[in-house]
Design brief:
heterodimer; A: alpha/beta; eight-stranded mixed beta sheet; B: 124 residues; alpha+beta; 6 strands; disordered N terminus; binds zinc ion
């Protein structure tokens, strides 16, 4: 199984390619050492240890916070020695994400990482967006789902170019999966790629996909305190689409309170109340899309 | 591993797998006896869940049987309104001045610090 993405067979990740024939062209030169989908993995990492193996055990002052089980350090008895690694757990993902970002920027393609809990109405919102905004902004979809093809079939019927990633047991998309999907999708220059992440608000928050912006879709049925329950997600998102506002008359949900909670975690976050069933607020979302896709170099949100 | 689908363990499984793979990438020694991780309090990753997943993920690798030590640095931040430094226990901190506009400076770490390895011969 490979780092970060856990993409080995046992996890069952597969990219359902739109056109399986020619995603091969860029697989050399600077590309990562494997692609998903029909490609085999090659994990031939060079092991060039050029660090000396005689580190002492002096920890930097103040780094060891109180709390968890800090350890006594084993004696250097000749059989055991310490190797300082000091590396980010997600370094590999972040490297691929950065390459995705560069690839997208070179093509003037704006990728959005759409995240939500199950049931927030993300697929309906996407369907509607595709039907109503695709004429002014070219849209394509990368659909992440643990097992089924149902959502991507719905979106395809709505007229979109869709590539599906089935993550198997994986609870989030990672940069490597998106790389494979982008190669299959081949989005047109100047288009928007809507990446529908796997439905949960915990794991996707940690994984940079190389997207231009993160968008959280929350529904008023989920309660005002959603941002407080999922602070990591709300801390990193650029835009919140607060969906199902048509139900507000039947709920005690206060949009202002939700916005206050979200801004407590992320003061700069933009919040657009929308209803995918009545189209309330949707023009503002379409304007957001159109505005960002036309910004010349897609500078950060 | 369907039983792992429940709850948060799934999340940490992916993270734990990333940790183990990164260690195996970096270390050629046949046996790792100890792994030291840093998981910041604001990282969104639960140390106990990582421990839970660790034993599963290391089975059959050079890390099997390794001791897992996790340090959990608390967060620190800076108030964007009054410039005061704060200790952050979670992401919901409000500054003494009443401002919720707090920039997180640290506490989101997810780092592999070091490993102890066992080997008969000293390389390099
Ligand atoms: Zn302050």
């Amino acid at each position: 199984m490979c780092a970060t993405c856990g993409c080995g067979d046992e996890r069952g990740v597969r990219v359902e390619t739109r056109d399986a024939a020619d995603t091969r062209e860029e697989s050399e030169s600077g590309s990562p050492d494997h692609l998903h989908g029909e490609y085999s993995h090659s994990h031939d990492h060079p092991h060039d240890h050029d660090h000396p193996h005689d580190h002492g055990h002096s920890h930097e002052d103040g780094v060891h916070a109180p709390g968890d089980s800090e350890a006594e350090v084993p004696e250097q008895d000749g059989a055991t020695r310490r190797i300082e690694l000091e590396r980010e757990v997600l370094a590999k993902n972040d490297t691929v994400a950065e390459r995705n970002r560069q690839w997208l920027t070179e093509r003037g393609v704006l990728a959005l990482n759409l995240m939500s809990s199950p049931g927030a109405g993300k697929t309906t919102l996407l369907e509607r967006t595709l039907a109503e905004s695709a004429s002014s902004v070219p849209l394509a979809v990368i659909e992440g789902d643990q097992e089924t093809l149902r959502d991507s079939e719905r979106l395809r019927r709505a007229g979109a170019d869709v590539v599906q990633i089935n993550t198997g047991a994986g609870c989030h998309l990672d940069a490597e999966m998106v790389w494979g999907a982008l190669r299959s999708l081949r989005p047109a220059p100047g288009s928007v790629v809507l990446v529908e992440n796997v439905g949960n608000l915990v794991c996707p928050a940690l994984f940079d996909l190389g997207e231009y912006a993160k968008v959280v879709i929350a529904a008023v049925t989920e309660g005002e305190d959603k941002p407080l329950k999922y602070p990591n997600m709300f801390a990193h998102t650029d835009l919140v689409l607060l969906n199902k506002t048509d139900l507000l008359p039947h709920l005690s949900f206060e949009v202002d309170r939700f916005a206050e909670y979200a801004r407590r975690i992320n003061p700069g976050v933009e919040i657009l109340p929308v209803s995918a069933t009545t189209d309330e607020g949707l023009p503002a979302w379409y304007d957001w899309l159109a505005g960002h896709v036309s910004s010349p170099l897609h500078q950060g949100v | 591993m369907e039983w792992l689908w429940e709850g948060i363990a799934v999340h940490e499984l992916g993270i734990t797998q990333s940790v183990v793979d990164a260690v195996l990438d970096a270390v050629t020694e046949p046996r790792v006896t100890r792994l030291e991780l840093e998981i910041g309090k604001l990282s969104g990753v639960v140390p106990d869940s990582v421990r839970f997943c660790f034993d599963l993920v290391v089975t059959g690798t050079a890390l099997e049987g390794a001791r897992l030590d996790i340090v959990t640095p608390t967060g620190s931040g800076r108030c964007r309104d009054c410039d005061q430094r704060l200790v952050l226990e979670d992401q919901l901190a409000v500054c003494d001045c009443g401002s919720p506009d707090v920039e997180v400076l640290s506490g989101r770490e997810l780092r592999i610090r070091a490993v102890d390895v066992e080997s008969g011969t000293v390389t390099s």
